[in-house]
């Protein structure tokens, strides 16, 4: 099994949604076709509906939604 490279932007996007009072509250991550790199696919201030719109049906996605 090989490892996956995590882009620096992934951590920054995670930290942005975890801070109280920040406008962004969700992030969707995707992987490249070789499944060797995790990248930020989208993020924003909306809610679950926005997360669902940014999930790609033809790829592997991971999503986080900050709910208070």
Describe the fold and architecture.
The protein has 68 residues and is an alpha+beta fold. It has one domain (5-65): 3-Layer(aba) Sandwich (Severin), CATH 3.40.20.10. Helices cover 25% and strands 31% of the residues. It has 2 helices and 4 strands. Strands 1-3-2-4 form a 4-stranded mixed sheet. The longest helix is centred in the first third of the chain and has 11 residues, at 8-18. It is flat. It starts with a strand and ends with a strand.
List the helices and strands and how they pair.
Blueprint: E1 5-6, H1 8-18, E2 26-31, E3 37-44, H2 48-53, E4 61-65
Parallel strand pairs: 1-3
Antiparallel strand pairs: 2-3, 2-4
Low-pLDDT ranges: none
Class from secondary-structure proportions: alpha+beta
**Could you please say which CATH topology applies here?**
Severin
Provide the gyration radius in Å.
12 Å
If classified by CATH, what would the architecture be? 3-Layer(aba) Sandwich
Largest sheet: 4 strands, mixed
What's the helix-strand series?
Answer: EHEEHE
Question: What distance lies between the first and last C-alpha atoms, to the nearest angstrom?
Answer: 37 Å
Using DSSP, what is the number of strands? 4
**CATH homology superfamily:** Severin
How many helical elements?
2
Counted up, domains total: 1
Question: Any idea what the shape is?
Answer: flat
Rounded mean pLDDT is 90
Highest CATH level, the class: Alpha Beta
Strand percentage, roughly? 25-35%
Helix share, percent: 25-40%
Strand order of the largest sheet: 1-3-2-4
């Amino acid at each position: 099994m090989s490892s996956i490279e995590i882009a620096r932007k992934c951590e920054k996007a995670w930290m942005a949604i975890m801070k109280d009072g920040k406008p962004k509250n969700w992030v969707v991550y995707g992987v490249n076709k070789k499944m060797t790199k995790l990248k930020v696919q989208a993020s924003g201030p909306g809610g679950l509906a926005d997360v669902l719109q940014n999930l790609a049906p033809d790829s592997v996605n991971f999503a986080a939604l900050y709910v208070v």
